């Protein structure tokens, strides 16, 4: 069993961690923009309220990571967040092959992208949680909560993504579960300790 590191009061390679944190802040800005737009698309459906909850949580997470950056005396690079916002805007016409209208696959592409984004940001939380074991300025309890929250978000997005895939192409949205039952039960996202705790 690996021995727990002794806290040193400072992370190694802080300049690299500063870049890493800013990259995740930029990704958070893009996620907020995407979910804000998705709320408009799904207004009046049973997906609207869970998306609104997700948006609130994404904003909270972005504020939390900003707070960690400040605690570590890292500069927050706003230009990266602006660049991500512009890229998300520009990608709208490229996602589904329709320039002026939504394709039937638009919802599927967006929920697949969202699922990947949630997995990516959860990895970021886990990396910071590891760093928290050697730097007491990083709030370990906060990161534990954010990891659990990301697990729950991933459960919900995965469920919706499968439902949307079935509505677009036909088929049984529960079919991937049979593959999981024959393997390790992993949906590509690792050990989701929040399994069964759905969004909304």
UniProtKB/TrEMBL annotation:
Comp. bias (Gly residues): 182-193
Region ranges (Disordered): 167-200
Protein name: Uncharacterized protein
Species in which this protein is naturally found: Modestobacter marinus
């Amino acid at each position: 069993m690996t021995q727990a590191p002794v806290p040193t009061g400072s992370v190694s390679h802080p300049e690299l961690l500063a870049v890493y944190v800013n990259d995740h802040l930029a990704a958070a800005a893009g996620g907020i923009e995407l979910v804000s737009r998705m709320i408009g698309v799904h207004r009046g459906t049973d997906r609207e309220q869970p998306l609104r909850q997700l948006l609130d949580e994404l904003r909270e997470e972005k504020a939390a990571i900003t707070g960690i950056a400040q605690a570590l005396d890292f500069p927050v690079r706003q230009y990266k967040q602006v660049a991500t916002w512009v890229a998300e805007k520009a990608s709208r016409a490229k996602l589904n092959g329709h320039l002026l209208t939504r394709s039937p696959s638009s919802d599927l592409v967006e929920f697949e992208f969202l699922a990947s984004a949630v997995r990516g940001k959860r990895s970021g939380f886990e990396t910071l949680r590891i760093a928290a074991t050697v730097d007491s300025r990083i709030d370990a309890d906060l990161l534990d909560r954010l990891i659990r929250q990301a697990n729950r978000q991933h459960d919900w997005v995965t469920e919706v993504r499968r439902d949307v895939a079935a509505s677009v192409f036909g088929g049984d949205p529960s079919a991937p579960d049979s593959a999981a039952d024959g393997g390790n039960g992993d949906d590509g996202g690792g050990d989701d300790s929040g399994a069964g705790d759905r969004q909304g």
